Amino acid sequence: MKGAGKIFCVLMLALQPMLAAGCASGETGETLSLPEGYRSLFNFEEYAEFGGVMQKNYFGKYSINTDGRYVKNGVGSAKLEPCGEGYADPYSRPALVMYPAKIAAENADFSKAERVVFDLYNTSDESKVCYFSLGVASSGDVLETEVMTYVLPPKAWSKCVYEIEYEKLAYIYDFTSLEYMSLEFDGLTPSDARTAYYLDNVLVKDTEEKREPTPIVLGEGEVCDFEADYQRYLLYVTGYGAYTPYVPEITVNTDPRFVSSGEKSLKLHIPHGTENESCYVRIMFCEALIEKLDFASLGEDYDIVFDLYNDSDSAFHIESDVRSENKFYAVAHTPTPKKWVECRLSLAEAAAKNPAKEGEPSFLSLINSYEITYGNFAGSSAADDKDIYIDNIRLEPRSN
User: Fold this and answer.
1) DSSP string, 148-198
2) Is residue 6 part of a domain?
3) Which residues contact 188 (CB under 8 A, 6 or more apart)?
């Protein structure tokens, strides 16, 4: 398991439909009219704005539109005709990727952004859906925020609103460095008719107040017990290899049958893989939590422990890791089905496996990552998917 994997969609995978409100016909004019507190990212008044746009997954066609029926603000909009790769696949949806900083450098700073809004017109006689997310810098890479789904009524403008919960998301995302915004549509098969959409008025609403993430408060020996609402935002998902289809659906569980301590636990619904695919999915805990734990001050006297419940009839292999930039220590676990088990990682053993040379800092002082990792597993249907529960991640004094 060497090398860096491509980062996928963060956090808790909660794709919940949001009905985009239908709007009246566009109000066009020679100059743009912006609501108070908003700034324009894209309005597609001229073709030069497409210099900040790229296609992904064989998007299809886009062009400038000046027909006032399909302009919401100003004198122009973007006509979109998404297509895709010829099949309907949620992992390769055609996407229009917008890079606001290519229009103006200051557009990359989303540290005060409360929400992104955009107007989208669906020309079809049927309701359609679109998907929106942000790509934001995170620990030297780019991590996508939660994807939101919007229902677009037929023959109407829709106002799509994407709220940015900075207080929860800033543990992982550096909102001073927005990389892109992704607008996706369902892919089409060769027999599907294309639908034209019109995109206009892509705006961001800023607040004047400085915002801070919710403080991380740890009890004695606590790492993460998922009792506080903010704790579900302390982790995100990445991986090695072609792991995207096997990313878990992550939710907070309140069913007491699957809680080892307190009233909540973390549930991972994991899709099955196939025999000929090799990949690993990594559940990563944010650097802010790692810094708060301060492994260097703990020394070698503690173990990192969590409780794991495998709610399936077959064995499941999982491991826990601590990592620095160039070194790591991993422990494999094979939890018994239908039973709570303890999974333990010794900091003393981690240090022993990664000895420091004279004059170098210790491995424990360099740890910048704690993660729970698993590989894909074979199956033929949804019945082969697995549900596992993680609870009460903690530090325990090492037993001699």
Assistant:
1) EEEEE-TTEEEEEEEE--HHHHTTT-EEEEEEEEEEEE----TTSPP--EE
2) no
3) 82, 83, 84, 86, 88, 194
Any domain includes 233: yes
186 with 52, same domain: the answer is yes
* Residues 183 and 272 both lie in one domain: no
Total number of domains constituting the chain: 2
The verdict on 32 and 134 lying in the same domain is yes
CATH of the domain at 177: 2.60.120.260
Residues 26 and 165 in one domain: yes
Expressed as residue numbers, the domain containing 56 is: 17-206
DSSP-based three-state secondary structure for 262: coil
Q: Which residues, including other chains, have CB under 8 Å from residue 238's CB and lie 6 or more apart?
A: 5, 6, 7, 8, 141, 143, 282, 284
Give me the torsion for CA of 83, 85, 86, 91, rounded to 10°: -100
Place of tokens 């206009």: 200
DSSP state letter for 337: B
159 lies in a domain? Answer: yes
Task: Report yes or no: 250 and 15 within 8 Å, Cβ to Cβ.
Answer: no
Provide the CA 19 distance to its chain's centre, in angstroms.
Answer: 21
Q: How does pLDDT run along the chain (400 residues), one tens digit per residue?
A: 334 333 433 333 333 344 454 444 445 445 678 889 999 999 999 999 999 999 999 999 999 999 999 999 999 999 999 998 776 666 689 999 999 999 999 999 999 999 999 999 999 999 999 999 999 998 778 999 999 999 999 999 999 999 999 999 999 999 999 999 999 999 988 888 899 999 999 999 999 888 889 999 999 999 999 999 999 999 999 998 888 888 899 999 999 999 999 999 999 999 887 766 688 999 999 999 999 999 999 889 999 999 999 998 888 889 999 999 999 999 999 988 999 999 999 999 999 999 999 999 999 999 999 999 998 887 888 888 999 999 999 999 987 6
Clarify whether residues 118 and 264 are in a common domain. Answer: no
Let me know whether 185 and 235 are in one domain: no
| Within-domain flag for 11 | no
Kindly report the number of other CB atoms within 10 A of residue 234's CB atom.
Answer: 23
* CB-CB neighbours of 70 under 10 Å: 22
